[in-house]
Design goal:
41% of the residues lie in helices and 17% in strands. By secondary structure, the chain is an alpha/beta fold. The chain has one domain: 3-Layer(aba) Sandwich (Rossmann fold), CATH 3.40.50.
């Protein structure tokens, strides 16, 4: 069953380090991993909300074996990275931190792979310096703010009662919410490992602050869509159509607006939902590997 071979969060963390970076709101420390040969072609993977870089763990070993230098990290407020309480989280700051991380790690040009919340960070990076992005791959996420359909718990946490409701978030509730957006079975153990990164340092309480990304997407939609649709490099969309948040309805626009892009629709049966890399790593891994290799 997908997810059964996931390393534990602690095993994942043991393979990385913490790196001090600086953004527009000051200095923070992010959890970072680099896998694969030091001289391999750089690939940067950006995770989604509300989880962490651990989401990429089913794919990283395969990409490393193909010779890529794979950089993964937990965004600010996620996983094993800093989780400042009184902080105004911003997608723009997240992009600042990624740029500074690239600088500190000596990463110049890089392929960019993003999922969920990470697609907005990636769109901002693409809007800033498209020439350094060698190719892009996108997994289910809110590429178009007007098509984003947050689930009920996200809407509630994003509302005025969000800070109070965040205290009631539990692993049981997380698993239930995840199963509403997944298309294929994922083990309880895998979901538990995903939850561990959220719960660390009481990170669940940050959900209302992190969900401000919904508003930022609307504010920056024109610029980010322009960067996405105007990108001249190779682009791949690996998409789960059964995703109620960013599924088939987003895929239809991608096909309309970017006919030059490669689209891999994971239609099953059963169809994949919101987390392709967790639900179908045996399909996503080869697709990404071939695309990143230029074949």
């Amino acid at each position: 069953m997908p997810g059964s071979a996931l390393p534990t969060g602690r095993q994942w963390f043991a393979g990385g380090t913490r790196v001090a970076v600086r953004g527009r709101a000051g200095a923070h420390t992010l959890f970072v991993r680099q896998d694969g040969p030091a001289d391999g072609a750089p690939v940067t993977l950006v995770h989604g909300f509300p989880t962490s870089s651990h989401d990429w763990s089913p794919l990283v070993p395969g990409l490393a074996r193909l010779g890529f230098r794979v950089t993964t990290f937990d965004l600010l407020g996620f996983g094993y990275s800093d989780k400042p309480r009184r902080h105004r989280y911003s997608l723009l700051e997240q992009a600042d931190l990624v740029e500074d991380l690239w600088r500190r790690l000596g990463i110049g040009d890089t392929a960019l792979v993003a999922h969920d919340y990470g697609v907005s960070v990636a769109q901002e990076l693409l809007a800033r310096t498209p020439r350094r992005i060698t190719r892009t791959a996108w997994l289910n996420g809110g590429l178009y703010a007007d098509l984003h359909r947050p689930i009920r718990i996200q809407r509630l946490l994003h509302g005025p009662m969000g800070p109070l409701l965040a205290h009631a978030i539990s692993e049981r509730g997380f698993r239930a919410s995840m199963r509403r957006i997944l298309g294929r079975p994922v083990t309880d153990r895998a979901l538990h490992e995903m939850w561990e990164g959220i719960a660390l340092d009481r990170g669940r309480l940050l959900a209302p602050q992190l969900l401000r990304y919904i508003d930022e997407r609307r504010v920056h939609q024109a610029r980010w869509v322009s960067a996405l649709e105007g990108y001249g490099g190779p682009a791949l969309f690996v998409w789960g159509p059964a995703d109620p948040i960013s599924g088939a309805h987003v895929l239809a626009r991608i096909r309309e607006r970017m006919p030059h892009a490669v689209v891999a629709e994971l239609g099953g049966p059963p169809a994949v939902g919101h987390y392709p890399q967790i639900e179908a790593p045996e399909e996503v891994g080869p697709l990404l590997g071939a695309f990143l290799a230029g074949s």
